[in-house]
Write the structure tokens for this entry.
Amino acid sequence: MIYLDNAATSRYKPNCVLSAVEYEIRHAANPGRSGHNSALLAAEKISSARETLIEFFDAAYHNVVFTKNCTEALNLAFNILTQGHVIVTANEHNSVLRPLYRLAADNLITLSVVYPTSDGCIEPIEIERRIKKNTVMIAANHVSNVTGIETDLYNIGKIADKHGIIFVVDAAQSAGHIRIDMSKLKIDMLAAPAHKGLYGVQGCGFLIFNNILTVPPLLCGGTGTSSDSVEQPVAPPEAQEAGTLNTPAIAALNEGVKWTDKNFAALSKNNTKLTAELCYGLKNIGKCIIYSPENCSGVVSFNLDSIDCSAVADFLNEREIAVRSGLHCAPLIHRHLCSSGAVRVSVGHGNKLSDIRKLLQAVESLLCEVSRV
């Protein structure tokens, strides 16, 4: 199969990632729960993964908390909110929108939504114009999971920093594809999954947050520390990591991040080349509504005239080409695009120009079949 659904989950996994998972399964031990050598070694690997993430994201003076996915990491970030005004963009995934809209429905916060301009970009000035005296947070994704357009984190971060507002970034589609310097970008909280651009496995995500912030836990329970107390520890990471951690996935993430860092230039070059080829090919086919620019970050969404997006995806699947169709859990941006769904193609390591060309040939074939009917 030609796998072009990497925005959902990367198909390729480096051998170092596979080996890390297998080792932890074959030598299973609970980190931080026992004093024997296997448990201590597992705890050391968890600690090593935290250090790797801090270095990779230039996140000195930040804490790293592991979660089961990016959605949980974002919910943990928003758990800091008890009142105030929050600014969010229309580009967001439901893992951002639903927690915030729920808080708004419970009258804990008020929300302002910033929509993109005609070129699909979020203008930082539009965010600054919506700042109120009680604005406490700005939440934005780094790369749209629908259009692949990159958000100007640098200037939004400067605005947030100037006004003393917490800046939360959803890096689900950018981590591993675009270099992120949390200190330079003034990011207070960054959430990401292991299983996309960092080439880890499902079941693991993380939240990196400024150590001046107090983040209430989503769950309470055993942590392996302060076990003489029925109160949840208050210091991170134990405060936010109740229960047994997913050691195989965290060990795999550690290896995936190091592998991605080492191969970053080649990965970025391939991503850019394939994305440009895809956008150029779709434009040349005609009868395509393309929602992504040629310089987008590996995520390209489109529709074909008068053909339902699910029918396009099914047609491609029958020809062993995997894409995703639908609303991509991002309702506001689809409404803004006047789209009831789209076909999304997302490239990753392991994809080649021949994959893109076969996809384009299949799209042309579908259009020919429809024109004959």
